[in-house]
């Protein structure tokens, strides 16, 4: 999944960036509210991690502007421990959840997973389809009950397709969810990952839609 980190503190930003990328997320990082609003006009994200104390344009203004634009991307707001009024104001302005600084990175990951799951319309933490089960909390994949090891980017593709059976995703859409601005992407990267996935979960589950992209059929193979 592709996330936008909006955080002006370099030390916090680097720690969060490293953690999220190690967890397999594609992450873009901006350090002020004005640039965040510019980026959000052009680029879709699965979740925004937003600090409220930002230069040039504060986080609350970013959040309100985002919601005024009818952008419903889940927003996890980060606030200081004693900023209770700020938390309330953020939630009232359209934030989906908040986390208190200095925050525990494990808690942050759990809240991110919960918000992404909620945005996808899934109440259950484990999703199963056609004998393949994925658990976003642990990144575990099983096929007919047997564990299968997948890479971080294979996981992203599998989750994107498995929770949306019948929806065709183009190579560009998959790339946008898998890679951040600074990642170099080879022309056949998606094809390579899908080829590897098919060997692990079965050749028939992920289907090519010629000239369009990839999908998992609503009808189990």
From TrEMBL:
OmpR/PhoB-type domain residues are 124-218
Its subcellular locations are:
Cytoplasm
Domain Response regulatory as annotated: residue spans = 2-116
Q: What is this protein called?
A: DNA-binding response regulator
CDD domains annotated for this entry? trans_reg_C
Q: Which residues bind DNA?
A: 124-218
Q: What is the lineage of its organism?
A: Bacteria, Pseudomonadati, Pseudomonadota, Betaproteobacteria, Burkholderiales
Gene3D superfamilies hit by this protein? 3.40.50.2300, 6.10.250.690, Winged helix-like DNA-binding domain superfamily/Winged helix DNA-binding domain (1.10.10.10)
Q: Supply one GO BP term.
A: regulation of DNA-templated transcription
Source organism (scientific name): Rhodoferax lacus
Q: Which SMART domains match?
A: REC, Trans_reg_C
**An annotated Gene Ontology molecular function:** transcription cis-regulatory region binding
Q: Which GO terms describe its cellular component?
A: cytosol; protein-DNA complex
Q: Where, per the database record, does this protein carry 4-aspartylphosphate? A: 51
